[in-house]
Amino acid sequence: MKLPGSRPDVLRTRSSSGPSPVGGSFGGTDSQKIMALDDFELQAVYYNMACAHSRLGNIAESIANLENSFKNGFDNYSTVRGDPDLDPIKKDRDFEKLMETYDGKGFFNPFGLFGSKK
């Protein structure tokens, strides 16, 4: 993903091959300061892409982006279930499986409060 982020990082690349003249396993490296997306930015990017693809009718792409959002730490499942932008994918089996995998709670069942008698 090619977006500027707010987290500074250093990208190191090998500048010479072979063993290092001062010891070590390989030659020197060059470094370049870059800005990377932090965890919250990744969550937001993937979540918003899921919403956009959902609205466009791209079900598979929407679900894949939503899963990437979850993999990057997004865990506000009630927001996902209540977001009207995601309505087009909510009846899809892959969406249901994804939610079951990450949330496992399913939709709220008020009758579940009473428990079952055995």
Description:
This protein has 118 residues and is an alpha+beta fold. The protein has two domains: 7-36, no CATH class; 39-102, no CATH class. Helix content is 40%, strand content 14%. The protein has helices at 39-56, 59-71, 77-82, 93-102, and strands spanning 7-14, 29-36. Strands 1-2 form a two-stranded antiparallel ribbon. The longest helix is centred in the middle third of the chain and has 18 residues, at 39-56. The protein is elongated. The protein starts with 6 loop residues before the first strand and ends in a 16-residue tail after the last helix. The mean pLDDT is 81.
What's the structural blueprint in terms of helices and strands?
Elements: E1 7-14, E2 29-36, H1 39-56, H2 59-71, H3 77-82, H4 93-102
Antiparallel strand pairs: 1-2
Helix pairs in contact: 1-2, 2-4
Please, how many helices?
Answer: 4
Count of the domains: 2
Structural class: alpha+beta
The percent range for helix content is 25-40%
What are the low-pLDDT stretches, counting only 5+ consecutive residues below 50? none
Mean pLDDT: 81
The major sheet is characterized as:
2 strands, antiparallel
State the separation between the terminal residues, measured CA to CA: 53 Å
Side-by-side strand order of the widest sheet = 1-2
So what's the overall shape? elongated
Write down how many β-strands occur, each being a DSSP E stretch of 2 or more residues. Answer: 2
Region (Disordered): 1-29
